[in-house]
Amino acid sequence: MISIQLPDGSVREVPRGTTPFAIATSISPRLAAAVVVARVKPLKPVSAPTSEGPDAGHPDSEGSEASMYGAAAGGERLVDLSAPLTEDVALELLKETDEASLKVVRHSAAHVMATAILELFPETKLGHGPATDAGFFYDVYRETPFSEDDLAAIEKRMADVVARDETFVREEEPREQGLADYEKQGEFMKVHFIERFTKPGDEISLYKNGNFTDFCRGPHVPSTGRVKAFKVTSVAGAYWLGDEKNQQLQRIYGTAFFNSKDLEAHFKRLEEIKARDHRVLGKQLDLFSIQEVAGAGLIFWHPKGGLIRKVMEDWMRDQCIRRGYQMVFTPHIMRRELWKVSGHDGYYAENMYPPMELDDAEYRLKPMNCPGHILIYKNSPKSYRDLPQRYAELGNVYRYERSGTMHGLLRVRGFTQDDAHIFCTPEQIEGEIAACVEFADEVLHAFGFTEFKVELSTWDPKDTKNYVGKAEHWEGAVASLKKVLDAKGIAYREIPGEAAFYGPKIDIKLVDVLGRLWQLSTVQFDFNLPQRFELEYTGEDGEKHRPVMVHRALFGSVERFFGVLIEHYAGAFPMWLAPVQVGLVPISEKHLEYANAVKARLEAAGLRVELDARNEKMNAKIREFTLQKVPFVLVMGDKEAASEAVSVRTRGKGDEGSVSLDAFIERAVGLVKGQGVAL
Known about the structure:
By secondary structure, the protein is α+β, with helices and mostly antiparallel strands. It has 21 helices and 32 strands. A hairpin with an 8-residue loop joins strand 11 and strand 12. The longest helix is centred in the N-terminal third of the chain and has 22 residues. The protein starts with a strand and ends in a 5-residue tail after the last helix.
């Protein structure tokens, strides 16, 4: 017998080998019909995970290759409803309302799609098919490209597979048998995954539905019939293992939901995302461009975009100075030896541009600002009385991104990082980290974001080659970050193996108006660079001590933050950020003199104004300002000129009638100073 603890705290004694489905049935047949998957957690401590995969044991990483192909870990995990329970566990029966259930149905949909592909195109070789936040995909190798007609045929065959309601059956076999079978079939990608995520002597897991078999960790829904609402969406190119020297794969995308209503809502949301695409709006509003002749991933800021950038940067500099930061500037290129000392030339080299050999040395474009700030710190002796030293810079950095990975402003090769580095004593570290987290919160709220999620990225002690520093340093640094988050009552998710090579970090991901997560703000602990550069300060005891260093970026990059702002507001920026805050429309040429006088008054009040003096119809001028998403459009005719008034049209509200010019100026200036979102 084994003990099963249910979420209400009750414990059931059941025979070893009882399945979650059987337990659900014993509770309620209605529950058994509704559950999708089970989550189990051993009631006894687990000594070590059983998988060699890097993500093993983390149930939130179901979409990763490791969780798909590694053996299930002995810790908390998702399991099939048909999985025999063999130890004392806490059991949760997850229904469609649970987020984890949706990922399971999407992963099962990927198997349904792979079944359909092989039935229609048996020459195809399979890669992997993970669930994603938006759906699922399957990487496949086939010499002939898939057409739109092929995708339609695949979707139709998927419906047949679902209608057959084939049971998903998990089987295990020796690793060597699996390798031999897949090698015989020419499934080179499956062979790679077995070799990567298992070791000699392991048993590997296979999932079967009908005549289809796939090497997979699972779990899955009980049968293909549970994949009810799905859509094959597109196909794109992808290189095997991400290397352009390898075979060209085809990545077939799809999505799945529990019902057609959610599926329909998903595509409506995609239309909204498309309407907010910062690349389209950037061109429409004349904010920025990427010039092919100059190179991919390099941003040209146009006058209107440049004006918004100035407002953003001025705000950030003012806030930094108010918080005790000192503004600094560092060169764009520095000697390669500096990057060797910092460790970037080794640990970060693949993200850096190649060295430039000049007459006196090799130089590299900077991917980060930290070594430059360190040199400023080292330029003069420091005492404990001088600490903390807070250096801030809106510095241009350059990182090599592969040609297929760049995406408008969101992923670029050259960008401006609102970087800061804090040098402090060990006793000051928690206070400085807390201040950085508070600063990040204020940045997000100031630009109109009210919701965010926090992640704590730590190292993987089993992968020491990719990290620097001693274990005790890492443990102490992680403890400091946790203490700050706990003290502030901030909920966070810990992600092992995602730290920077030099220390753990707190990542703050904002949630935009469509509920999308964006990685922007980060606060990083660094005990490595002070050691590498032999930084010192004289302590109260007169002895030399080593400072601790904090990296922090709150916009993350000005380009990325700006891209997110465009999509969050759909280009309709708040008054204080709008490049043109007021558009002026004289009804006819005889009203131009009054319009110029209004323009002068508005500009004297500090407002950004554009006067349309063209010999065009009034409605055409109003329409142009509306398309440019200008917050206010003021129309002026005989009546307004005679009474020193303006007729106000407000973005999103329409015609609000005539008001005195003085009243409008007071309103507009108040909106700018208040930095609010609403007009």
